[in-house]
# Entry
Amino acid sequence: MTDTVTSTARRTAAAPPALGPLGLFTVLLGAALPLIDFFIVNVALPTLAEDLAASEAVLELVVAGYGLAYAVLLVLGGRLGDLFGRRRLFLGGMAAFGLSSLACGLAPDAWWLVAARVAQGASAAVMVPQVLATIQAATEGPRRARAMSLYGATAGLSMVAGQILGGVLVAADVAGTGWRSVFLVNVPVVVVGLVLAVRSVPETRSQRPEPVDGPGTVLLALALLTLLAPLTEGRAAGWPLWTWLSLAAFPLAAAAFHLVERRADRRGRTPLVPPSLLAITTLRRGLTIMAPLAVGFSGFMFVVAVALQQGAGLGPVAAGLALAPMALAFFAASLAGPRLVARYGARVVTAGAVLQGVGVALVVLAVWHDWPGLGFVELLPGAAVAGAGQALQLPVVMRIVLSEVPPTRAGVGGGVMVTTQQASLALGVATLGSLFLSLVPEMGMRDALMTTLFVQLAGVVLTGLLSLRLPRRVG
# Structure
């Protein structure tokens, strides 16, 4: 009898922790919050600028400070979760995200807000990698495939919903909070999330945790900063000398990071981004699609938000709700995505790129024909088709990226993927946003918007062509 009990106890102890439905909902909530906050400020920027008397350069820092801190620290956040426990880091990151959101909402001036946004981005970098790592470590088989599909759907829907929610909150002016409500709304959500996480998220960690790679962390941060900082701030600052020096330093920093990581790998150490991880074909090819997909998505959302408010004269609610068809179509198509992937494999991504291209083309036609009378009705066909196309790409690409990453490196793999996504989101606002704003004085709002959308359309074509190199079957 004693032997039976002992044997049962050993089997139970050896069994991997399971992530139940409530736990999955909780970690997906943690994944949604930072993405919503990346986009929620787009429609709040005009009101924010007026209230805090913020210059255009400082406003860009409000967006860029969050994105830079988030992107730079993500891989480190994944490594720390592997080392100290993913549940522990998830709870700590979520609590810090709530506190920094409160600091954003109470900001007395623009520079306080910039600092709080940097802290908010750093908190997100601690929390988000634990989501994917927990899913990888605490699910398997069909449950993991379903969880990954839900993660991708949550990510895409959050990016669209953030902009809509921002417009509604600013216009509602809850208790006179105005733009501050877009940050303060996070606080009660975080409290609920923490309660749920304590009860439902299992603790997981790597069986062979790898120590933090100090040189790799510094060089990766330097590479991302030298690229993203000048692209984000350059136009508003008038492209001073430091922006060009920073861009010139980027390839040197990137090369140094690669050499240091390869040398550490050869010597049997534990690099921040192991070259052996990037040798996984599905991960490498998935990331090459993730980059242009995220660049185009964030650039589109930012440019349309500015054009609808400053050019078409829409208020924050109307500007946000104009993209509601995109969110609804994304949600509907993401529900059908897993069944389509089971039948057609990665070719669903190619079909999604075609749909998205058609959607962007329809938006261009609407701008050309109806400007400046753009609104919900005029954008409905293009936004809906583009949203459906994005839903057939993003969740599937995320599944492909992590499909062959070993569970022991789930935190690092998730960190690499989300870093690519977040850096590309920031790059999209910096490049397409700067292109649009620089063209407006010469071409006018309508033609500048159409030109920028044509550039995005070229990116969609690139994504479609790259998708042809994906493995046919999706794990």
